[in-house]
Amino acid sequence: MSSQKLKRLTILWIGLLLASCASRVPPNGGSKDTTAPQLIASVPEKGTTNFRGNKVSLSFDEFIELKDGGSGIVISPPMAVPPKVILKGKSVQISFVEALDSNTTYTLTIGKSVTDITEGNAFPETGFAFSTGSNLDSLKLSGNVFDAYSNQPVKDALVMLYNVLNDSLPYKKLPRYFSRTNETGRYLIQNVKQGTYLAVALTDVNANYLLDQPGERIGFQQEPIQIDSSNAAPLNFRIAEESQTRQRLLKKDFSLPGKLTLKYAMPLEQLNLKSRSGETIVHYSEFKAGDDSLIVWIPNSKTDSLTLISSTVSAGISRVDTLLFSPGILRRKLNVRTTRNKSDTLLVFTNTLEGGKLRPGQPFVFIPNHPGNLTHPERIFWVIGKDTIAVTEKGSADSTVFQLPFKVPVFSSEKAEIVAMPGAFSDVFGMENDTTKSSFSLYVEDDLGLLDLRILTVQDTVPLILEITDPKGKRLFIRNVTPNEPMIFEGLVPGKYGARLLTDTNKDGKWTTGKFLNRKPAETMRYYSGEINIRAGWDLELEWNLDVTREPKTAQ
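RE: above sequence
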């Protein structure tokens, strides 16, 4: 055999040998791992008493990883210095930086931080309890947390128990026990010691177990609760952001062609916006005294920078803010070369048609995307059948939301059309409309339905306000309620509706949030739990009995 041939055979043999020694991989098509890690051992054991150590070790049946760095592993009662969490192969070690209290039951909530390394299956959320005393506390508290306005369940809310009763809670002190709500808003606090507690629910934005950030919502029991072996009834909470006592500007947003959105912490009694030179250069939209949000339109926003001085009065207290913007920079970012190549720099309209129809006697309403007015009435007209009719009657424009109503002439044909030719309307930026057409027909009596609703209750001393809503919760009608008397809603377009009922405790005509320091809860908003299905030509009679206890219904 030649040396060249022998060399080739040797190379082939080495290649086959290396291939046979290559890493094995699992065959394709195997079943997906859906099994979560299982806890197989712990030091100390679950339920241990007289514990004297400074760490807990948890061992699992497979290799694991810590999602979010183990932040989901928490201990109750909480510690001023959180424990250190270390991953070691198939185990997790939780080391306590500060000394444990004596005669105390601690509960480690493992949460869903522990997952397997293959498919990310999370360890089922559970509590691991041990005691530094001779007994393991075993009492429980459970219930649900709902949003006070929408009645929607609140996920990841903290429910906290304090064994010290004073007015600084929960602004300054950590709770004794706590638990988090699941996806359905349900919580379970385990291993609680018998005693009297202040109970609070909180959405904890910065994860420090304190109410100290804007946007955090709180709910509470007005009186301390007693936890012992006899109380098994669930304890529910309704949470809301507290009413503010200090005014501040929460949000400012500028977008083309000159729309400024402002949101304040407290309702505004007065507002004045001026340029740095003192000139008033703005048009207001969607603002009235008592609002905390507003939209401001700035016609002259072509400079590279803009400074506005905002002067407000809230609760009798004046405040001045300096608002800095760079419209020129924003314009370059959006690459706006002309006033016609972006949808937000066009004057366009929506309207108030419902299903392409109007009720008899209802005006046709143009709603411009910018504040605007009819500047050339001769360029707008009706088309009814084969006739073209000039617009002769224009309603009063709403200076708050810039709606432009037009009285519809009497017609007997099937459809009508309103046409606005180019330049009929102009806005505060000098823009004009393109040709705008809207066709519609009129509802007749048999097209619409009627709702006869009675609110039944023996408690008639607190004002009640009823709102009829569309399926998305937008308010369509509002009425003050006289209990046990019929309320008639005529001319309803067929479809599904909702109803919500405000208990207007402070008699200000609107939903009001609460304040923990005053032990004043948010006003109650209830939702009708049945179906309100309006059909054409039908009268629907409903009774809503407030004295029948129900769990809160999810808002529509």
